[in-house]
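quick one, 185 residues, struct below
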Amino acid sequence: MKVRRLIIGLDPVPRRWALIEEAVAAAGRMEAELIALFVENAALLDFAQLPFAREVGAVSAARRALDAQAMERSLRAMAGEARRMLEAAAGRSSVRWSFRVARGSLVEVLLAEAGEEDLVIATAGHPAEHGRAWKARVVHLDDPEQALAALEAAGGEALVLASEDVARLREALRRLARGQQRDPD
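---
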């Protein structure tokens, strides 16, 4: 499959942003455009506006009301940091890239963006039920070999590589960036 765009989903969990470097390298190797989508959790923001919404301090264990405006400011700051990381990584290569902020569910936003010949990287659980709705092939990574096999077998539809394990996604992207098809037996 010739990948036209590599779409990476970013959320407000900075440890997952480690995928940025590998995504840039993989997009460069595949000669694909890189699109990074920072997705704000709409359900969490909606919940924060409810009068009974509370959070418990990690250190103090004190309950306090959620501040939706402070949460939005924090999300904007995190999106800015993720964009700077992408800009720095992409600046060291010739990859075409873009960065957008969206609000909703990570998997739903990514799948709504995906089109034919797109490779989508999601740090999510098993979103197979969403894949059917958007005509995307979803591969939940248990092994980086699955990513390579799925890419070889893809027939024009969007291909979603999903895992909660960032290390597995990073390894799959590294292997795609290196262009390794399979390790010799």
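The radius of gyration is 18 Å.
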